[in-house]
Design brief:
Blueprint (H helix, E strand, L loop, with lengths): L8 E3 L1 H16 L16 H11 L2 H6 L1 E2 L21 E2 L6 E7 L5 E9 L6 E4 L1 H4 L6 E7 L11 E8 L1 H10 L6 E5 L8 H5 L3 E4 L5 E8 L12 E11 L8 E6 L11 E6 L2 E7 L12 E5 L3 H12 L11
Parallel strand pairs: 2-5, 10-15
Antiparallel strand pairs: 1-10, 3-12, 4-5, 4-7, 5-6, 6-9, 7-8, 8-9, 11-12, 11-14, 12-13, 13-16, 14-15
């Protein structure tokens, strides 16, 4: 994929159309075998979508806990000049939602994600540290605009998870620069793809670090929050260069109060030419931060574009140990 030098750009409608055309050409010259039209998915996922919808009852969604045990502990927001901007619960945005699954111990888990524009209208970005574990993920699904135990746009089953191989190989600290994931979803039980159901945001690539107005959304752990709703905050971002040799890299940093454990994967949103652009997800440095008032994101660069292209093409995802 041709990229415009080192300048920032967004994967928006024009780029999505180009990728869609390239995928169609690739499909037309593929080797003989069981053929699928570009963007088509094997039959059968609608049954799993219906089963997932039936499984994720309000009680089960409310009982789910953050994908990663532990979470951030209260502490001083070092390096922040002035008061930390407050967060407040709200009913969410249609494009931002929650992944739900049950792990190997039948514990319900969750992590945030955001629908981004793509040729097949089926991609969500999230944090890699939520999804890196090889532990089984049963009933693995995405619920857009989840709040208060509700599924206002239905349930979409997960088909594939795309993480950078280096994140698997180096771990959550050594690979902190690649703490992002692209997730491909199956259609809702009625055959509707997620982007057609709720819309999508542009994916901002090489966005820079300094932004005066950034909206941060995250789903807090139920044990930490008074309301089972996502949090919303408006603040600014800047570059943070890690001082931890175990977690090297440059990251987006934002001050927003109350982003406790569970908010991982939530988007950093800025206004673009066609609505919001996603320029980060809560994660990266120390899997998103050490205190609830400071959050981080890995920087969205060309490596994320490669993951996005792999997801669009339906390439085989990386796997734990696959790079060794």
């Amino acid at each position: 994929m041709n990229r415009p030098g080192s300048r920032p750009f967004a994967i928006r409608r024009g780029v999505v159309a180009l990728l869609s055309g390239l995928v169609a050409v690739a499909a037309s010259v593929a080797l003989p075998g069981p053929a699928l039209a570009a963007g088509a998915r094997p039959a059968g996922h609608r049954v799993s979508a219906a089963a997932a919808d039936a499984y994720w009852t309000p009680a089960r969604m409310r009982a789910a806990v953050p994908a990663v045990d532990g979470g951030r502990r209260p502490g001083v927001a070092a390096g922040v000049a002035g008061p930390v901007p407050p967060s407040h619960p709200f009913d969410g945005l249609p494009q931002v939602g929650t992944f739900f699954w049950t792990d190997g111990h039948n514990t319900g888990r969750f992590c945030g994600g955001t629908v981004v524009r793509s040729p097949h209208r089926d991609l969500v970005v999230s944090a890699a540290h939520c999804l890196r574990s090889p532990d089984p993920k049963k009933q693995f699904s995405f619920v857009p605009q989840y709040h208060d135990g509700l599924k206002p746009h239905g349930v979409f089953p997960v088909e594939d998870i795309y993480l950078d191989q280096r994140y698997y190989d180096l771990g959550t600290d050594g690979g902190a620069r690649w703490d992002y994931a692209v997730v491909r979803l199956g259609d809702r039980a009625d055959g509707t793809p997620v982007q057609r159901a709720v819309g999508g945001f542009d994916l901002g690539i090489r966005p820079g670090y300094a932004h005066d107005v950034v909206r941060l959304i995250g789903y807090p752990g139920s044990s930490d929050a008074v309301y089972p709703k996502p949090l919303d905050c408006t603040s600014s971002t800047h570059r943070y260069t890690s001082t931890d040799p175990a977690a090297p890299g440059d990251f987006l940093e934002i001050a927003c109060a109350g982003y406790v454990g569970g908010t991982s994967g939530g988007p950093f949103l800025v206004r673009g030419d066609d609505g919001y652009e996603v320029i980060g997800v809560i994660g990266g440095y120390h899997t998103g931060g050490d205190t609830p008032d400071i959050s981080y994101s890995s920087y969205f660069g060309d490596d994320l574009v490669d993951l996005f292209a792999d997801a669009v093409e339906g390439a085989a995802p990386a796997e734990p140990g696959g790079g060794r």
